[in-house]
Structure formats: C-alpha cells, structure tokens
Amino acid sequence: MSALEGALKAYERWAPLYPPVAHNPLMRIEQHSMLEVWPNMEGRRVLDLACGSGRYSKLLLEAHAAQVVALDFCVPMLDQVTTADRVRASMMQLPFQPEVFDAVVCGLAVGHATDIQQWMREVARVLRPSGSLVYSDFHSEAIRVGMTRSFKDSANETVTVPHRVYDLDCQRDAMSAAGLTIETVRELRVGIELTEAFSGSEKLYRDWHGVPLVLVVRARK
User: Is 202 helix (H, G, I), strand (E, B) or coil?
Assistant: First the structure.
C-alpha cells in the first residue's frame, strides 16, 4: 500500500471528526505560520491542494481570493467543503491545464506524496509564472525521532496517518528541479514555537524540547 493509499484510508476514518478549522495545537501553530508567510491572495485564483475539510479554502476566501479550487482524494473530507469549487483527484496527477493558478496552498500533506519530484513538477506545471507555492508538512525530524500524526476515530481507536520522510534537502532539490525558488523556510519546534498548554504538554515539551515538528515553506515559480 502506498503512502497515498494509506493516508486515504486514515483520512476516511478521520473525516467525521475533522472540522474545517485548526482543531489541535499542532494545526494552530502550523496555520498561524502559514498565514504569516503566504502572499496577498486578493483577486487571485488559488488551488487548495489536498484540502481536507476545507480550512484553507475558507481562509483563502476570507482573504478575498477571486476563485478557490479545493482538491482532495478523500470523498468524506471533500464533502465537507462548502466554500470552494471541489475537485476529487490525486495530488500526484493534477487535472488542470498548465499555468492556471496564481498560488497553490497545501497544508500538512506533502508527506503523503508517492514521489516528491513528481509532486513538485505537478505544482510547478499548474502555477503561472511568478506564482507562489505555500505548504506545510509534518517535519522529517519529528518522524525520525518517533513522533507520529495520530488521532482517535469514532470508535475511540488510535489511528496513525502513514507518512513518507522527505527531508528539507530532498524538498529543496525537488523544488529546484521543478523550477521553483524557495523564499521562506520555517521550522516550528516543540517548546519554542509550539508552546500551547494541553493535556500531556508538559511531558511533550520536556521529552522533545527543540525537535522540529512542522515545516512551513514558501516558494515562487
């Protein structure tokens, strides 16, 4: 089973409990950083790639994007999106003509790509010249030290979302090969950028202090 297929099965189980807002501390700090680095979206045509339940689609419309296209492979997630033009498709083969978007936004999904080089090529292909890519992902260092993205499903069973490891150098190489230029990189660390108190946070901050948990990148075509 590929990372994409495994993630699809996990997200189908997560969908009933996955509202279109940043609903946990990791997502809140990730979203805060994404909003700080993304470009002016007013009047732009934007692709919300691997949109989930549509939290970024909603925020893009609040930022006065002219059009938002929300793409995801998971039907139960996509069914929750009410604020954008919905498209069910794989993020590895985008069903769009070249150079049709001013920006692509992708939250916490790059590690589900089966091939990071192909993923970057597809994003670059659908971006107009000078268009922006803004994405976040669960950090490769967090995966290497044994951290996971997990959730409790409707039966209260713990489910871990499968995730490939693409370190920052690998992502840099893929962007360069696709003709994308990095403008901003942020690494959000446990106990430094992520400081919100929650159940079990004291142990997390003690045991994993300084571990990069989320990567946020902005690039330009």
Answer: helix
Q: Which CATH number fits domain 3-220: 3.20.20.380, 3.40.50.150, 3.10.180.10, 3.40.50.720?
A: 3.40.50.150
* pTM of structure: 0.94
β partners of residue 158 = 152
* Rounded Cα gap, residues 30 and 144, in angstroms: 19
120-154 core/surface letters (b: 16 or more CB in 10 A; e: else): bbbbbbbbeeebbbbbbbbbbbbbeeebebebeee
Quote the radius of gyration of the chain (alpha carbons, Å): 16
Return the structure tokens found at 127.
Answer: 């971006």
119: its two tokens: 């993923």
Q: Judge contact between 105 and 48, C-beta under 8 A.
A: yes
Between 152 and 206, the higher pLDDT residue: 206
For the cut 90, the answer to whether the pLDDT of residue 153 exceeds it is no
Would you call 204 helix, strand, or coil by DSSP?
helix
The helix (H) or strand (E) run that includes residue 87 is strand 85-88
Residues 168-213: pLDDT tens digits?
999 999 999 999 999 999 999 999 999 999 998 999 899 999 999 9
CA 129, chain centre distance (Å) = 22
* CB contact at 8 A, 53 and 68: no
H-type helices in 132-211, by residue range?
Answer: 140-144, 168-177, 201-207
C-alpha to C-alpha distances, 149 to 34, 38, 137, 190, nearest whole angstrom: 19, 24, 11, 14
Alpha-carbon distance of 181 to 156, in angstroms, equals 43
